[in-house]
């Protein structure tokens, strides 16, 4: 179906149908503001349009409710193969949420005594934490991204409380591997300053002035230049989307990145959580229960739960049961041991069985090897296999919340293909009768 004739409202309905829940107005407006909806409608097919929106919701970190940088969507950023893992929200009671919040406030107070935290505030922020808007202004400042603390001090411009934007960006001159120049307007003092990232052997074009020049090298001999995009710094923007900037070495934001990475490695927190804590002093959301479902090709769908040791066992049970209801297509009933043994027996021997007498032959072989668990005829034996093998090798549904469209298109097709192959193989022999 060609999707170019869909409206934004139709696209939203299609996405909500895929998610099996509503997309809140605030979340949809974010997509509109980012022109994600227009980009989606330019795709050729309906599925491509919906996948584009689902990717924006998932990969951008936007849940189906608005949230602040203080509460990122941790579930969507676990380590693992994104192609085969789907994430969704867990159900926590008020007690669990408040306990997690109390712990986060406590650990934030402790972390604020770390030298990397209070030291950065002392050296760069006047010894205080920033208000959220001040933190955003610093993270978005082109000046903080390209110029050092000493440069700010020499210019008399406060690190917190200024605005700076790029007015010109030049990508070097012909034949130069790395050479970038940016002209940044600072307010205050209302002046334009130029910074350059280039190796020492690159000369400036005649007539140009550079106020700050930096470069970093891969080797001590300074023969191989590092890319100016080698120092990513991630944070959450005003809508909660993950944003990444690439400060130059020696800049204010690169120094912030160094402090963030030290704390992040020590605590095991996401870097964007540490960014927000250092700049604002606000406690991050430390999710006490993270759950994911892994769809690896060589094993059944696997539920992974990472829980704080104090989480009540009944909360784990309730969430696990909720996952099963979303994921399993054949239920989680216990199957009879003998039936499971029949399934394993058939799979082990069916490849070598005579096609014309596969079921009678397997039935006789089973009875001879299992005299205490025999079947009266091959039809009952065959029925046991077909009744249970579909439960053993069942397909799995993606979770209904925050699906991963890429995984749904890839791993689900693979799983279904494997199941179809198995079923076609056994169905081929299902109604065969022995000769004579």
Overview of the molecule:
The chain is of the alpha+beta class and 436 residues long. The protein folds into three domains: 67-112 and 286-326, no CATH class; 113-280, no CATH class; 337-393 and 404-428. The chain has 16 helices and nine strands. It has helices spanning 8-19, 25-33, 36-41, 46-59, 94-111, 115-124, 132-139, 142-146, 149-155, 252-267, 271-280, 313-327, 337-349, 358-369, 378-392, 405-428, and strands at 85-87, 163-170, 180-187, 191-197, 212-214, 233-236, 242-245, 289-294, 302-307. A four-stranded mixed beta sheet has the order 2-3-4-5. Strands 1-8-9 form a three-stranded antiparallel beta sheet, with helices on one face. The longest helix has 24 residues, at 405-428. The two termini are 53 Å apart. 29% of the residues are buried.
How many domains? 3
Q: Give the % helix.
A: 40-55%
Strand line-up of the largest beta sheet: 2-3-4-5
- List the secondary-structure elements in sequence, H or E: HHHHEHHHHHEEEEEEHHEEHHHHH
Supply the number of helical segments. Answer: 16
Radius of gyration: 30 Å
What is the terminal-to-terminal distance?
53 Å
What spatial form do the alpha-carbon principal axes imply? elongated
Protein topology:
Elements: H1 8-19, H2 25-33, H3 36-41, H4 46-59, E1 85-87, H5 94-111, H6 115-124, H7 132-139, H8 142-146, H9 149-155, E2 163-170, E3 180-187, E4 191-197, E5 212-214, E6 233-236, E7 242-245, H10 252-267, H11 271-280, E8 289-294, E9 302-307, H12 313-327, H13 337-349, H14 358-369, H15 378-392, H16 405-428
Parallel strand pairs: 4-5
Antiparallel strand pairs: 1-8, 2-3, 3-4, 6-7, 8-9
Helix pairs in contact: 1-4, 6-10, 10-11, 13-15, 14-15
